[in-house]
Amino acid sequence: MDPRVAIIEHRLDGIKRIIAVASGKGGVGKSVTASLLALILAKRGYHVGLLDLDLYGPSSHIILGIDVDEYPSEDKGIIPPERHGIRFMSIVYYSKEHPTPLRGEDVTNAIIEVLAITRWGNLDFLIIDMPPGIGDETLDTIRLIKKSEFLVVTTPSKVALQTVVKLVKLLKELNVPIIGVIENMKFDDSAYVKDTVSELGVKYLGYVPFDKSFEDAVGSAEKLMKTDVAKKLSELVGNL
Question: For the domain 3-233, what is the CATH code?
Fold first, then answer.
């Protein structure tokens, strides 16, 4: 047995709640949702951590405008730097902007390594920006982080929603807690997503409208918090 797996539980001992933000498909705003959720909770006075677990296309640092040129400090593990009131950890600290072409066991090994070496300390929330898909990364997270809860993000797209349906069914089969589903980038009054989610027996948390001006706020935590996206998301997550 890999000794690092036993260390992971110890590393997560001081965290009250772990919320994995997932979608099952890329391009639906999962990273934006995870980054804003961490920022919103930090602004509310909670001790928050944000782990970007997207090994192939980490982007939370870009959304929040976090400089990753410097390496995190080390003391019997890696201590996540605090930015905007958030303890932030990402593989991008080490890969920089180079591609990380991992496959098979290398993916699992990378996830175990990140979880085993990161010292989060005491947190109210750890938000995990999950990689897209329902493959090894998702299954490894469920296996290694047993107290994780999933917040699922979709768009009005029927293609995106069908992937989300598969993810939700997988989570239910594995008895993983699901906080609910958020419909992102909504641009009409269709109830298709809400009805589909309700049929699955999962809570539909509401929708975030499409905001064409949001891109201008990317890279500035201050500007992000003033966007309609952040304001609506703050309403949807309510009192987590």
Answer: 3.40.50.300
